[in-house]
Amino acid sequence: MAEAEDIFLRAKQRTFTGLTEDEQKEWRGPFCFIQAADPQLGLMKTWREGDCDGGGDEWTDEVQLTQQAVEAVNKLSPRPKFMVLCGDLVHAMPSTQYREGQERDLKVALRGTDPSIPLVFVSGNHDLGNTPTPETVAQFCNAWGDDYFSFWVGGVLCLVLNSQLFFDASACPDLRDAQEAWLEDQLQRASQGPGVTPKHVLVFQHIPLYLKTPDEEDDYFNLQTATRQSLLGRFKRAGVKAVFSGHYHRNAGGLHNGLDMVVSSAIGCQLGEDTHGVRVVVVTADQVIHRYHSLEQLSGRGMDEDLRKLLQA
Questions:
Q1: Where does the chain have alpha helices with state H?
Q2: Which of 205, 217, 212 is closest to 252 using CA atoms?
């Protein structure tokens, strides 16, 4: 497995080929990246059989879909700056029967990602447990990298968050408080300095702030109202342009008061009418434009032509 692990070392170090961190803080023109979510190895069979509480003893379909996504992303030109997977990497909960095998096979499926495309991993509820503990968070960090962190790419500040600590941190309040303090510092620096002012600020997390509107009722698939409104206010004050998430296994979200809540459907199991796919995101000096592409479309035709033209500006 040494070869497979190399790709995760790159992600943990969050390096971007050929440039230092300070150089990545400089705007260098339009670029694209890929946002994906919920490969969730093991869910498709359990969903078909109506046993979603089980860990899933079969995940061949999800492995093949992940490999298809990797092959499609590798063919894109211009090359994406990175690919981020927004949580629920596998279906089996921590320390359950199929967890080790699902993680192993996902790493093998991702091994084919071109070395020039760093992978960024976001923790989801199945990765940490619905009520995470210090032990489950440590397990995730050991397997996939930090559960929250920031990185710069092409003049854009990206914040990766552990949304499970927003949802239920009753078993790890110290970890929640640590992320809160870190996040507040990151947001203040983004809006007030010191240092470089980012061209855009983007957030990546698993659970959406909301699915359609900020005032919607609490649901399994969104963050609770008080937490949601607090984060919305903090993000807007810091100039966050967009929040990218998964969890819903359907495309949703919407733009409200200048903040774009982007909810992307899954590489793996679909719970609605969408198809297996990923989201192509184009970043220009003034905009962050994104569109969900089916794996079939991305494999056959690449990204939509209007998005490609934005990268040539």
A1: 2-13, 21-24, 43-49, 60-74, 99-110, 125-128, 134-144, 164-167, 173-192, 225-237, 295-301, 305-311
A2: 212
- The 3-state DSSP composition of the chain as helix, strand, coil percent (nearest 5) reads 35, 20, 45
For the residues of 148-205, what is the DSSP string, one character each? SEEEEETTEEEEE--THHHH--TT-HHHHHHHHHHHHHHHHHHHH-SSPPPSEEEEE-
Instruction: Output the pLDDT for position 2.
Output: 35
**Cα distance between residue 284 and residue 221, in whole Å:** 30
Distance CA 186, CA 238 (A): 9
Cis ω for the linkage preceding 78 (within 30 of 0): yes
Token pair for 28: 């260098």
Fill in the DSSP letter of residue 207: S
> Dihedrals φ, ψ of 268, to 5°?
-90, -130
Q: List average pLDDT for each run of 10 residues in the chain, which is 313 residues long.
A: 44 58 91 98 94 85 98 97 97 96 97 95 98 98 96 96 98 98 96 88 98 97 98 97 98 96 98 98 98 98 96 85
Sequence-distant (≥ 6) Cβ neighbours of residue 210 within 8 angstroms: 216, 222, 223, 228, 253, 254, 261
Which pair of tokens denotes residue 38? Answer: 């919920």
Q: What whole-number distance in Å separates Cα of residue 89 and Cα of residue 288?
A: 25
Cβ neighbours of residue 24 closer than 8 Å, sequence gap 6 or more: 16, 151, 152, 153, 154, 155
| Cα 235 from Cα 212, distance rounded (Å) | 17
Cβ-contact 214, 256 below 8 angstroms:
yes
